[in-house]
Amino acid sequence: MNLDVFDPEFIRCPFPAYDQLRKTGAAAYVSEGKGFWLVTGHEHVREVIGDVETFSSQSGPLATTVPSDAALARIAELTPPGGLRGRVNTLLTLDPPGHTRNRKLISRAFTPSSVKRYEDLTRQICRELIDRWADGEEIDFVAEFAVPLPVRVIAAALDVSDDRIDDFKRWSDASVSGIGADLSDDEVVDAYQQMVELADFTQAQIERKRAAGPAEDIMSVLVHARLDQADQAALGDQAAAQLTDDEIHSIVRQLLVAGNETTTNLLTQSMVLLHGRRDWWTKMQADPTVIPAVVEEALRCTSPSAVNQRACTRDINFHGAEMSEGDIVLVGYLAADHDPGVFPNPESFDPERNNLGDLLAFGRGIHYCPGASLARMEARVAFEELTAALDSYSIPDENELEWNSSFQLRAIRRLKCIPVTKRRR
Ligand code: HEM
To answer: Ligand 1 test: best mutation among 243, 305, 331, most atoms within 8 Å of CB?
Structure first.
């Protein structure tokens, strides 16, 4: 099928194309770039992500951008002796048994009590950001709320000091810049430069945390996590008991990729959804206990990690689609969350749906998002604070929103927003 996944119109509104693809079969071959299969039905997406032996996560990057020789030469000049740290597969890009070991080692960083630890900070950041706005004065909701909130929370979790937050944001942007997007040579080289800086910073953090001994922040947990003997025996003798420095570098990069842009996008798109639903804004103000359901429905509507990647480990006929070993298979979480067979009237925003537990926005199975509770907490607290502070808001250019150029992590770049009335807390 000839679908241009970089077409700005497809990125802005992929739903008609997804509907068409779902009707034509379980997987459509999209001949863009190197070519790949796109899976759009809820049941078929679940089948792919549930069969980790046939559909591997060790698929390598999707070649959406192929840098020129000149860009590669500039990258080689920037590369430190010994290469860029963290060029190893971990979590998102790893299959069992290595993946099982990784998940066990990071699990302590994402327990309910560790998420709870960041709730007060999240609320404090929300209040601080909202307090800077003036009644009737236009803000960019993305730059002035949806970006700084998750960046500052994850920065705290990685124990990044306040004076490095701007650097940290730059590195975070660079980590996601190439995902599902077509970059120029200059952009590729710039992103690489940022990765070199992030690697230097992360190495210093690792050494600092190692010297300081165990603590509760995520960075410290990663540095000091150790498999117990039972896990090590179950995983085999070769399972190293601790994460290596390179594995920590790789995981830190993934936390930035998987955690920041996605949460930013959830918050931003939720504001757009809720702008059309004044009734739900009022309900949230009257009864904040409805906010978790609003967040779940916003997750279903927006599925910010829209498309994720697998690679076939063998030839397979997948419900009529003849896939070959090595083929890239893209699982459409956004498409699945809009499958009308599972979510009737998928384009309508309805927090009272009775099957929101079926949403796939956080994936499912062994790669299920470990940051889901953290993201849900951030979104819940954000809307508790936003609805407490703002009577309403307007979005002047709702019909001309500017989207980024990624079909995998599609996101609104700027959201002009006018807080109409501020209420006192
Ligand atoms: C609304 C926000 C978020 C969304 C929609 C989201 C979505 C996802 C999805 C769909 C996956 C599975 C990918 C796959 O199947 O290949 C995933 C994995 C992951 N997420 Fe999230 N995520 C969010 C927030 C976060 C946060 C806040 C963090 C951490 C701070 C995080 C860390 C991760 C990591 C490390 C993985 C890899 C897990 C593995 O492969 O075992 N995510 N996320």
So the answer is: 305
